[in-house]
Design a protein that fits this description.
By secondary structure, the protein is α/β, with parallel strands linked by helices. Helix content is 34%, strand content 14%. Helix 1 (14-23) runs parallel beside helix 12 and helix 5 packs across helix 7.
């Protein structure tokens, strides 16, 4: 039997590279002096793509160059950089790493909520700049009596809600579908959700269906005392509209871990004093990144052993339908 060959697009954690390198032939595209030449050479034999960071996109153009491609294993719960619908339609399975990062991302959502509302980074800078001796730091907003709206009540959204309840916040949510198992009030549209809350947390998946779902109308509905928190994907927020809303004080503040064009963050956004900005570190703990790496490796090795994937995406269900 021919050895199993996989194509890894960009560098990844040793916890991914080392176990896969021991069990199969792992072609490291980023190490190739001529990536195009490598694709031409190994493409006809490659049966898996390992996507650990993005870009590059795993789109139809790339997958169609690999006639024996069976599976794409991705590092992260979000997989909007992969054309999973095209893959599923062509008999290719896509996996991701849900579940293992929920707690860390939910923790960060609450940390951003506190930091943006109470202006904690600004207060620290105030102290470090020696300004406390001249005057106390200005009073900030409070979490007390607020309502949190969660846009996307999936695994991560549920964990955010659990934490927010411990802070005494009222929870409302919007989802693609009303959840019968959720004890929170449902709002039928993002605008209606924003009207019902003053902290709006974005926790929905990325992709074309949610692109810029938080637009100028949603921000206007959130109002001048409103706080936007985004721990999902930058693509869900109209960044230009957000900058305008913050600059014109149409909303109070924003706490952001994700951006439309990472790692490039608009200077106009960073220049605003009512923004807390982090460099996409929601899952950025050693424990969680190790768990994500282990699940990615587990998905691919389970596939190689003929057991099927552990965590396939909904677009590529398993077992694969019979034609």
């Amino acid at each position: 039997m021919a050895p199993f060959e996989a194509l890894m697009l960009v560098p990844g954690m040793a916890e991914v590279v080392e176990p896969l390198g021991k069990r199969l032939i792992l072609h490291r595209l980023w190490e190739a002096p001529d990536p195009e030449a490598m694709l031409r050479e190994v493409g006809p034999r490659v049966r898996a793509i390992v996507s650990t960071w993005h870009p590059p996109r795993v789109d139809a153009a790339l997958m169609s160059r690999l006639p024996k491609l069976e599976i794409v294993v991705s590092f992260g719960v979000g997989y909007d950089h992969i054309d999973a619908a095209w893959a599923g339609a062509h008999g290719i399975t896509v996996t991701h790493t849900p579940g293992v990062l929920d707690d860390d991302v939910a923790d960060l959502a609450m940390a951003l909520t506190l930091a943006a509302t109470r202006r904690l980074p600004q207060a620290e800078r105030y102290l470090r700049e020696g300004r406390w001796a001249d005057a106390p730091f200005p009073l900030a907003a409070s979490l007390g009596g607020r309502t949190m709206g969660i846009l996307g009540l999936g695994r991560i959204g549920r964990q955010i809600a659990k934490r927010a309840e411990a802070f005494g916040l009222t929870i409302v949510y919007h989802n693609r579908r009303r959840r019968d198992d959720a004890p929170y009030a449902y709002r039928a549209t993002p605008v209606a959700l924003a009207q019902a809350c003053d902290i709006l947390v974005v926790a929905a998946p990325g992709g074309e269906g949610t692109r810029r779902i938080v637009n100028a109308s949603v921000l206007a509905a959130l109002g001048p005392d409103g706080v936007l928190i985004n721990v999902a994907r930058g693509s869900l927020v109209d960044e230009a509209a957000l900058i305008a809303a913050l600059r014109e004080r149409k909303i109070l503040a924003a706490g952001l871990d994700v951006y439309e064009n990472e790692p490039n963050v608009p200077e106009a956004l960073l220049a605003l004093d009512n923004v807390v900005a982090l460099p996409h570190v929601g899952s950025g703990t050693r424990r969680t990144r190790k768990a994500m790496a282990d699940l990615l490796v587990g998905n691919l090795l389970s596939w190689v052993e003929g057991k099927g994937p552990l965590t396939p995406t909904p677009e590529t269900p398993w077992p694969r339908p019979q034609n």
